[in-house]
Write a sequence for this structure.
């Protein structure tokens, strides 16, 4: 392993994120290479110094300032909302509730559509018309003939009926 | 002596023809009446309830021989369109070509569209004056029946006016149908046609045939080519006559078969279900590529359809 490769893995070595084989290789190189030993030493010193440096804590006024800004923002939005017409106001609904309501609406529409499909009704009406033609013959009362009472679904027939008395042919 | 014998024979023949009860006399007189008088068709619609009959409607169609008529029976669920094409074919007999088209509502589809049951029938009937054509639109099943009687009779009026013009068709309604379920229409178009068919080889006519045709009546003509060629059987139908100006039109349908003499008159199709339309009197030409393929010659067939003699275009 070259010095550059070892140098690139020093950070990982300190973090303990090297696998055992890489760690072994790097450790061996460091044991025989003075230059890399110096580099490790410098890096160790730098890390130590960083750990010892003071952590910057937020100011005590930060919470107060943040809360004040939040209040001011809400107040300004409330004032603006009061002036906005109702149809322009946004409705704030939690996303899960909105999704659930939308899903319910889609389900209801689908159900209604399925129940009103023509096929469901027509499956009852596919019954041949000819089978329901025994209605009483009230047509003579109304002066209209209901042909369906003659119709039993048979083919039309035509034939010649000979005149039994040819002499009586009307002229 | 010889002249006297001839005169006696002629006189006897005339006596038999005009004064006796022989067929010639009957044919002459009846034919004259049929030709001169109109034909009328009494159309009665009757409801049969068991043994009793009730007349629902009655109408009389009167027109020159060859008058055609349509009877349409219709309500919400059922329609019958019956077309009758009539021709005087004998002394007092008629050929009636009936085309029955029925359509009944069967039900509704899944898309709520109406479904119909349709039926088409064709029949050619021969009837004498006074016979009844019985039409049962709903068949002959037991129970209440609807019957349409059509009785052909000789009309009272002459078929032609003194001027020579054809007397117009009339439809008199003696009793109208309740609710107007029956509709009757009548018309008259030419029914008889004279057809000439010619076969050409390399542009030269090699066979010719001629025959009279009735509208919608199939008839076969054999064309025998000059020389040793096999004859052709042409089965032709004049399917339709259409009023058109300046010239009326006809539709034809035909099949052509070669009659192979060498194979015991086996028939080989040359043209099947061919059809055409053209002006009355003009020629309809068709190349017969299949017929002359082996000989290297070109063949074609020509149809010329005209009105038959005695047939008027009015």
């Amino acid at each position: 392993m070259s010095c550059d490769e070892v140098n690139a893995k020093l950070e990982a070595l300190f973090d303990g994120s090297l696998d055992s084989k890489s760690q072994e290789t790097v450790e061996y190189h460091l044991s025989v290479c003075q230059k890399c030993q110096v580099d490790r030493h410098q890096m160790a010193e730098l890390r130590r110094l960083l750990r010892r440096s003071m952590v910057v804590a937020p100011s005590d006024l930060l919470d107060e300032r943040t809360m004040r800004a939040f209040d001011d923002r809400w107040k300004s939005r409330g004032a603006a909302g009061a002036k906005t017409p109702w149809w322009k106001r946004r409705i704030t609904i939690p996303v899960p509730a909105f999704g659930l309501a939308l899903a319910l609406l889609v389900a209801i529409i689908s159900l209604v559509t399925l129940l009103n499909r023509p096929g469901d009704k027509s499956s009852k009406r596919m019954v041949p018309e000819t089978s329901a033609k025994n209605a009483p013959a009230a047509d003579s009362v109304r002066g209209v003939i209901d042909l369906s009472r003659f119709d039993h679904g048979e083919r039309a027939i035509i034939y010649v009926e000979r005149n039994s008395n040819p002499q009586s042919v009307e002229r | 002596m010889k002249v006297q014998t001839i005169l006696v024979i002629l006189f006897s023949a005339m006596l038999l023809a005009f004064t006796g009860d022989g067929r010639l006399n009957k044919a002459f007189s009846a034919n004259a009446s049929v030709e001169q008088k109109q034909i009328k068709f009494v159309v009665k619609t009757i409801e049969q309830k068991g043994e009793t009959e009730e007349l629902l409607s009655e109408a009389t169609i009167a027109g020159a021989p060859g008058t055609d008529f349509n009877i349409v029976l219709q309500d919400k669920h059922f329609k019958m369109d019956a077309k009758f094409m009539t021709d005087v074919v004998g002394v007092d007999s008629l050929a009636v070509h009936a085309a029955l088209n029925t359509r009944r509502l069967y039900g509704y589809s899944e898309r709520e569209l109406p479904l119909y049951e349709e039926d088409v029938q064709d029949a050619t009937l021969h009837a004498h004056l006074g016979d009844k054509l019985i039409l049962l639109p709903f068949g002959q099943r037991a129970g209440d029946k609807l019957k349409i009687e059509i009785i052909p009779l000789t009309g009272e009026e002459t078929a032609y006016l003194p001027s020579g013009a054809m007397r117009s068709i009339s439809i008199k309604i003696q009793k109208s149908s309740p609710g107007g379920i029956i509709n009757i229409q009548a018309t008259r178009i030419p029914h008889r046609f004279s057809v000439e068919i010619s076969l050409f080889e390399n542009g030269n006519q090699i066979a010719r045939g001629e025959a009279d045709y009735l509208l919608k009546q199939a008839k076969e003509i054999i064309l025998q080519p000059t020389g040793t060629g096999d004859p052709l059987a042409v089965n032709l139908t004049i399917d339709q006559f259409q009023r058109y100006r300046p010239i009326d039109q006809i539709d034809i349908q035909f099949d052509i078969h070669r009659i192979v003499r060498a194979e015991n008159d086996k028939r080989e199709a040359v043209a099947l279900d061919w059809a055409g339309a053209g002006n009355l009197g003009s020629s309809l030409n068709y190349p017969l590529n299949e017929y002359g393929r082996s000989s290297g010659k070109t063949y074609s067939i020509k149809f010329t359809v005209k009105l038959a003699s005695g047939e008027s275009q009015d």
